[in-house]
Amino acid sequence: MPRQTPISNPFYVLLILVGAVFVVTTFADALMAFRASRAGAVVRDADEHGHASAETAPAGESPRHPLWQLLSKHGNAIILSEVALIIAFAVAAMATDSFWQRRRNKGHSVSAEGAIGP
After folding, report:
1. What is the pLDDT of residues 4-21, one digit of tens each?
2. pTM for the whole thing?
3. What was the pLDDT predicted at 76?
4. Which residues sit opposite 45 in a β-bridge?
5. pLDDT one-digit tens code per residue, 35-80
6. How far is residue 22's CA from residue 17's CA, in Å, rounded to a whole number?
7. Long-range interactions of 50-53: CB distance < 8 A, separation 24+
8. Cα–Cα distance between 117 and 8 in angstroms, integer?
9. Nearest-5° angle of CA 5, CA 7, CA 11?
10. Cα atoms found within 13 Å of the Cα of residue 54, Cβ hemisphere only
11. How many Cβ atoms sit within 10 Å of the Cβ of residue 31?
């Protein structure tokens, strides 16, 4: 008898993926903040109008990585969006869990002898 793979709730898969991305993003943001605090301050070059730019690196260092630039500009929005997705997928997974459980059990019924059959 071929073994059928159980139907899992797709929202759990999405929840795990978004959670993993959230962990990576949060650690990258924390590392960026730690490195900036260790350096004493973010190096800023002021233009003729007095506006600061954090895009440049100190002398002797390579330019900032694109991930650091992205997180410095949009880090809070990215993290909050990931938290919102985690909440939405968690609620969706819990709300549809009984549906996926019924669908998984629909193909199997218990006979009078107690054996599980198709």
Report:
1. 666 688 899 999 999 999
2. 0.63
3. 92
4. 53
5. 878 776 544 444 445 555 555 555 445 557 888 888 889 999 999 9
6. 9
7. none
8. 20
9. 140
10. 12
11. 13
